[in-house]
Amino acid sequence: MHECISNVNLLPGKTSEIFTQSYYPSLSRPHTIKDIPSYYVPLSPSSPLKPSISLNGNLVTDPASLPALFEKQPPKTHYEVQSFDCHVLNANFNIGAPEGLLEPNNAGKKMSIAVTVSGSVRYGEGADVQGFMDNLVLVPNWDVYGKPAKGRRKWIVMSQKFRVVA
Description:
Nuclear Transport Factor 2, Chain: A; 33% strand; NTF2-like_dom_sf
């Protein structure tokens, strides 16, 4: 079941759907794991935006270190999204926005979005299937805001709390 409640428009639901359909398959493919940092707010001393990532209770301080973590997964690890839900946290998200973008955007392109994902993961061929819960906050990617993205993500993860559940 894929749902999203939004008072602004359908953008949060579509954004969340695009994210889930891209991110979790990337975790399952060895050749795309190197691209995982592109899904996150980059760690930058000059930006007030800081990524907050927790994977099974382990804090990850820099998204650039994620590929090394995911490369340690057994071969043929597979993530599958079973459902997601989302809602708008802030309709006028401005943290880290360039000064020229501080005014509200009525089209909903400046919001922060809370996304809750549930699914299953199998760590290797023949392994038991386990459930997972993932709570994320997606924010606009200010580096591509208002410009053609050309393969870059319009929405990136500011916060993630991922946990495998029994």
